[in-house]
Amino acid sequence: xxxxxxxxxxxxxxxxxxxxxxxxxxxxxxxxxxxxxxxxxxxxxxxxxxxxxxxxxxxxxxxxxxxxxxxxxxxxxxxxxxxxxxxxxxxxxxxxxxxxxxxxxxxxxxxxxxxxxxxxxxxxxxxxxxxxxxxxxxxxxxxxxxxxxxxxxxxxxxxxxxxxxxxxxxxxxxxxxxxxxxxxxxxxxxxxxxxxxxxxxxxxxxxxxxxxxxxxxxxxxxxxxxxxxxxxxxxxxxxxxxxxxxxxxxxxxxxxxxxxxxxxxxxxxxxxxxxxxxxxxxxxxxxxxxxxxxxxxxxxxxxxxxxxxxxxxxxxxx
Length: 318
Ligand code: NAD
Ligand code: UDP
What we know:
Blueprint: E1 2-6, H1 11-22, E2 26-31, H2 38-41, E3 50-54, E4 69-72, H3 79-84, H4 86-106, E5 110-116, H5 143-163, E6 166-172, E7 175-176, H6 187-196, E8 201-204, E9 210-212, E10 214-215, H7 216-228, E11 235-237, E12 242-244, H8 245-256, E13 262-265, H9 280-286, H10 294-306
Helix pairs in contact: 1-7, 4-5, 6-8, 8-10
The chain binds nicotinamide-adenine-dinucleotide (NAD) and uridine-5'-diphosphate.
GO molecular function: NAD+ binding; UDP-glucuronate decarboxylase activity
InterPro entries: Epimerase_deHydtase, NAD(P)-bd_dom_sf, UXS-like
Membrane topology: Single-pass type II membrane protein
């Protein structure tokens, strides 16, 4: 297969490129390097079958040669990134999705959309299965991301229904692991950075809000299964192990041996209170389920983050 990975130099994208190359596929990575890093894919540049084009998928770009699948991961993804780039986020979900759908249709290729648990907003149903329609504030600060992804899902289904496109949607829940940017503002990367530097961990609100954290290798197995499937989805991809943010903080303090404790800060507007995926559908149709427990995934993430290259990060902002 020759797979176009839009957003391939980012956190999830670089792991996906690696996994596809490992199983013998060719990869064409498209990225504007807004939140992606050249270092994430530097080791792939000499791999036969890997190619990277710097471009913005919301504008004009060219992909030459055969295309068997297109995976759309290109979007600002952390609350910090999409708050700082609201218009780019809306464009990535709308024009970016349309351009990549057109590319897939032209090549009669499989199209996989990386959607998000954020389509459920601050959910009033718990846990969340794929039949839940969500509870999203359409004008709140998170809406640029949530609504862009909801629009992207609608656009994907419209191309499937009206143009016969071979599409699949996955709704990704909080995923963590090596190559998260230390300053992307997400909770795992922030707590890991703070704990390794002996700083207090910044817990927003009282830390009673919950998330379900999936290790990146598990997530990438789900993405490759969706590329290989012809099922439209949507499928939740996430780890159903639900933790409060405070529990996560305490676990990271324990694993790092940090004694710096917690620092409580105000909860951001519209921060979802609870989040846990039901993954029965992905298990049934993709044969997928997460395998890596949180403490093991955090150990691997901490080992990577503590390695020397990760000290080459911007100055600490917290
Ligand atoms: P990331 O920021 O590391 O990766 C996004 C990549 O897309 C970056 O390499 C960035 O440079 C690139 N990009 C952004 N806009 C682009 C554009 N217009 N043109 C070309 N490239 C562009 O984030 P990530 O965590 O790897 O997320 C990847 C995808 O998965 C995103 O679409 C995100 O919404 C989705 N997702 C991620 C998570 C998670 O927990 N990591 C959860 C839900 C959904
Ligand atoms: N969070 C926190 N401290 C931080 C960063 C995040 O307590 O330094 C909280 C945040 O308020 C949210 C949860 O951790 O309740 C997950 O935040 P993240 O930005 O990782 O993802 P999302 O909100 O998109 O699930």
